[in-house]
Amino acid sequence: MLSAWALKNWRLVAAGLAILALLAVMAVGFWQGLAEIAAMQTRAAEAARDERDAHWTAEIAKANAAVHQARAEQAVAVGRIEAQAGEQAGRFQTELNELEKANAALAGGDRCGLGRDRVRLLNEAR
């Protein structure tokens, strides 16, 4: 009975099947379009992520270079300060040795107390 109706109305059945086939092709095209949009979003996200990573890698490298430069400048400054401190310590030691020699050269060098000559000697050391 159904086959008799289909044979009688074959044009209607063919048109229905053509419409169904067209809808199937449209659905596949729509699905491929959505898949391409998703792929484009993924590529854009990866590109943005790579760009961000490159930016921050450059920022970190710049900060590290600044830190290394500051450390190098500090090392130079420390060397300069240590050299100055060594010179001052040597000068103070020399002055102390000269003061001790001058003190020992005074009369009664082993005596306790301060005499006028020792006070003058100490006043000159200032």
Describe the structure.
With 126 residues, the chain is an all-alpha fold. It has one domain (2-125). The protein has 3 helices and no strands. The longest helix has 96 residues, at 10-105. It is rod-shaped. It starts with a helix and ends with a helix. The mean pLDDT is 89.
Main sheet summary: none
Distance between the termini: 132 Å
Mean pLDDT: 89
- Catalogue the unreliable spans: none
Helical fraction = over 70%
The number of distinct β-strands equals 0
The structural class is mainly alpha
Radius of gyration, Cα only, in angstroms?
Answer: 49 Å
Count up the helices.
3
Please, how many domains?
1
The coarse overall form would be rod-shaped
Strand percentage: under 5%
- The SSE string, one letter per element, is HHH
Index terms:
126 residues, mainly alpha, 3 helices
Summarize the structure.
The chain is mainly α and 126 residues long. It contains three helices and no strands. The chain has one domain (2-125).
Can you lay out the helices and strands and say which pair or pack?
Elements: H1 2-8, H2 10-105, H3 116-125
Helix pairs in contact: 1-2, 2-3
